[in-house]
User: Fold tRNA N6-adenosine threonylcarbamoyltransferase from Thiomicrospira aerophila AL3.
Amino acid sequence: TSSLTVLGIESSCDESAVAIYDTSAGLLGHHLFSQIELHQVYGGVVPELASRDHIRKIIPLIKQLLNEVGEQQNQAVKIDAIAYTQGPGLMGALLTGSAIASSLAYAWKVPALGVHHMEGHLLAPMLEPNPPAFPFIALLISGGHSQIIRVDNIGQYELLGDTLDDAAGEAFDKTAKMLGLGYPGGPIVSKFALSGDPNRYQFPRPMLDRPGLDMSFSGLKTFSLNTWQNAVKQGDDNDQTRADICRAFELAVAETLTVKCKRALIATGMNRLVVSGGVSANRAIRASLTELMAQRGGEAFFPRLEFCTDNAAMIAFAGAMRLQAGQQNPSLNFSAKARW
Ligand code: KG4
Ligand code: ZN
Assistant:
């Protein structure tokens, strides 16, 4: 089969991102503009501001990327297809990327394909030099999802476990907010955890006393809040206490995820684990899951750090895999699926 050059567009939340993936040459380039500064003063993502900023940023990012990749190749880039994040995410933000993708596809007379954001995350480790072979167990941990999935091939996914309440990333974000650490919470909590004492607080290990692969993280968030409020009462509300809470919280999340993954591996007899989504950037969680796989004589696969969180490389890649298998949007109509 001939190679396919795919432009990927990601705009589901607070990152405007574009990338070009070629099925023979690999990732040709990618750019990302983060809206963190725009939303920081509000303590979280403001959907309307996100949509407006995507409108401002995506087309200039595409122009810049096409120019750069064209210069590298000494000729204009020929895009064969466009893949965009169709959902889940913020409706207005998704519509921005979908509309731009569909308009360009119409103008360039190439197909456009809507991609599931979480399939992008799931396949992101395949952009790395030593990609996992099928089948494998995937742990998807992001701001909106915490799922354990059996992956037999591209498009062959079986959901084995899910969170019953908050996603892992959501628990990080809420813990950060309660401690007054701001948004986005994950990277700040990880940073504070570095100087935390792991023995000062003992957090619970939710759902480990029950069989099965489902998870729950809202209890940990409440435990962080209660621990912090007690510290405030005792006049102990300082950065060392914050760090100790962050460390204990992070350890509890890491251990819970590790035990659930171990169960999934045993139940399916698999020895490859793919870990992806924003929370997979967390050092303690990566270490714990890497150790699990070393103990089991298997292997853990992660995206590079910048592709753990939202990016368009994973969307271009997932789209390329599906387009290569013959999938296309049925018509020029497009829709965003906020709750896909
Ligand atoms: O995949 P992502 O960028 O967006 C979604 O699809 O949700 O994930 C964002 C989530 C946020 O909750 C963020 O706090 C969390 O990933 N996150 C982290 C770290 N970096 C980002 N959580 C823990 N440790 C990190 N280093
Ligand atoms: Zn994401």
Remarks:
- Residues 133-302 form a domain with the Nucleotidyltransferase; domain 5 fold (CATH 3.30.420.40).
- The pocket of zinc ion (ligand 2) is lined by residues 117, 121, 142, 278, 310 (CB under 6 Å).
- The chain has ten helices and ten strands.
